[in-house]
């Protein structure tokens, strides 16, 4: 044995000292290498985070960042809601650091389901919903993607064009095949309803569809209530499974009930469905990563089975979710005074965004632009799909120090009463030749 080890050691020494380019020897089935990760290339920059990096590096005093995906007040500053501060005061010094269960805070999940399914939902009463706390909306989507792959392994996911770019990454990394469906109509800067309906109709029966419940990211284009009814009915006829990503409930219109209307329509039509919920935007809990994944099942027995499987997937992924943000959400939603305060504050945020849409459109129009800018106020939510080309966006950045993603998506949270006129003038200048 000792002789064999000496021989192996000698062989390795000769390989290293001779500079041989031959494949390194194997140890227990793994290849040994003097540089384990030399073959790893840097990942491409995230298109949104890259915009922020460029903005921070720009020394211009006139620079404007309308690429940020987080709410800002009229001074361009991050906001912590008063309801969150009050909830934190309630738990100060009283919070232990014990693990939550794999499924997270039951209290938080219960309160969260009421927002999506309705305060007096029959599905909640009948215990037909399998639900777990997730790592915000991203984590909820990823949990569902893994669940889909594991229990419907041959299925595909239909994703709208365009969508939040991370949706593609999530289902790709879960090894779920992807297809797309028409959604945005570039000429009208609105919904391509006929194209969407055709794609739903032509998809194989029993397909999975990713839907944005409200404030579609990145376009800000939502179907009307009547269009949602038609979408729901066609998907029901085709036996499709709708999965709603609801990242902006309350933040879109200022009314959580209104922003959940699409989901309520599907529930009334008798769909089985899944929902990803997040409290990043509507409570400003970006860094707390508080979300919920729910799947509506046929009965309580099926819901129990599905929940155990979701927990089983979460266990090797992150074991269990964090406690602080979940406690904040459960306190705010279960305390009548704090919930009323939250409803007022989320409406203030939504109204500021809506107000900035109006101001931006009016400022562009008064410059005499021959183009239509109605889409700015027709769209809803944090993002405005401006219709600017990548080349026009480049000009905004190089000539006016205005930063946004090259697809023309403007984060309305970055627009303020102090910069809206400057932004409107810049947009007018670069769009003159259109």
Automatic annotation (TrEMBL):
Its EC number is 2.6.1.1. Gene3D superfamilies: Aspartate Aminotransferase, domain 1, Type I PLP-dependent aspartate aminotransferase-like (Major domain). It comes from the Eukaryota. One of its GO terms (cellular component) is mitochondrion. Residues 62-427 form the Aminotransferase class I/classII large domain. Keywords: Aminotransferase, Pyridoxal phosphate, Transferase. In eukaryotes there are cytoplasmic, mitochondrial and chloroplastic isozymes. This is Aspartate aminotransferase. Signal peptide: none annotated. The lineage of its organism: Eukaryota, Viridiplantae, Streptophyta, Embryophyta, Tracheophyta. Belongs to the class-I pyridoxal-phosphate-dependent aminotransferase family. Residues 1-24 are annotated as: Disordered. PROSITE patterns: AA_TRANSFER_CLASS_1. InterPro entries: Aminotransferase_I/II_large, Asp_trans, NHTrfase_class1_PyrdxlP-BS, PyrdxlP-dep_Trfase, PyrdxlP-dep_Trfase_major, PyrdxlP-dep_Trfase_small. Its cofactor is pyridoxal 5'-phosphate. GO terms for biological process: amino acid metabolic process. It comes from Spinacia oleracea (Spinach). It catalyses: L-aspartate + 2-oxoglutarate = oxaloacetate + L-glutamate. SUPFAM superfamilies: PLP-dependent transferases (SSF53383). It holds the Pfam family Aminotran_1_2. The keyword Transferase applies. Homodimer. Residues 7-21 have a biased composition (Low complexity).
